[in-house]
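Render Spermidine synthase in 3D.
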Amino acid sequence: MNSIQNNWFTEKSALWEGQSFSMEVKEVLFHEKSDFQDVLVMDTKTYGRVLVLDGCIQCTEKDEFSYQEMMTFVPLTCHPNPKSVLIIGGGDGGVAREVVKYPTVEKVVQCEIDAKVVEVSKKFLPFIASGFESPKLTLNIGDGLDFVSKHKNEFDVIITDSSDPIGPAESLFGEKYYKMCQEALKPGGIICSQGENMWYHSKIIRTMLDFCKTMFPKVSYGYTCIPTYPGGQIGFLLCSKNPDTKFEEPLKELSEEDVENMNLRYYNASIHRAAFILPQFAKKELLN
C-alpha cells in the first residue's frame, strides 16, 4: 500500500518486495482515480513535480530526461533513416518530446490508454508533456495491443513506454504484443521497450529476451540510471528486423553540437555505448 503520511510519500510494490522509496512532499497537486488507475501528481522537495500511477513513480522533473532520452535516441540512432515512429504508452509526453526532435522523423503516432494521464501531464507537467504540441504527432486514446494489431508494415521504430507489468500495461510485456510489433514494423524496423530492472526482474527480462529471439534476428538489453526508479536503474529491451543492426554502436553518432541543439541532458554517443556493458551477474542471468 502506498500513502502520504507526515508529508512523505512512500512507494511500495510487490515487484520490489521488502523495500520502499520515500520522498518529502510539499503539496499534492492532483489525486484522482481514472477509468484505469490511480493518478497522483505532487510537488516534492527534492525532485520537483512527480507523476505517480497506481502508487508507482513514473517520472519526476529532476530525473525524467535520463529515461526519456535513452528510450528515444538509442533506437533512433541505430536505424538508418527513421521517418515514422509509434509510441505505445508514454502518457506523460516525455518520449514524444524527444522523438519529435530527431531530424529525420516525419510522423509520430502515439497510443495511450488513459486520457486522464495525458490531461494531467499537460496541466501539471507542461515541460515533460511539451511533445504533445508538435505538429508531427498524432495522439490516439485506446488500448495499445489493439492499436498495434491494426497497423501492419507501417513504422520504422516502435517505442513502448509502459508502466510495470501489472495493471493496464501487463499485456505489453507478453509474446503476443511483440509478435504484433514485429508485424507493424517495416523491413529493418526496431522496437525499444521498457525492460524493467536487472536487479529485481531478471526472470521477467530473460523470458522476454528468449521469446524475442524467436521473432527478431537481433535482440539486446541495455539500461540507464535514474534515481527515482527502483534500484536507481531501468532497462530497455531492443529488437531489430535487420540482422546487421548493432545496438551497441549507433549508426548516427550525434555530435556535441547535435546534443546541445537538441537540449539533451543525458544521452550522448558515449553513454549509448556504455548502456550495453552489463555487470557480470546480469550477463550470466540474461545473456547466457
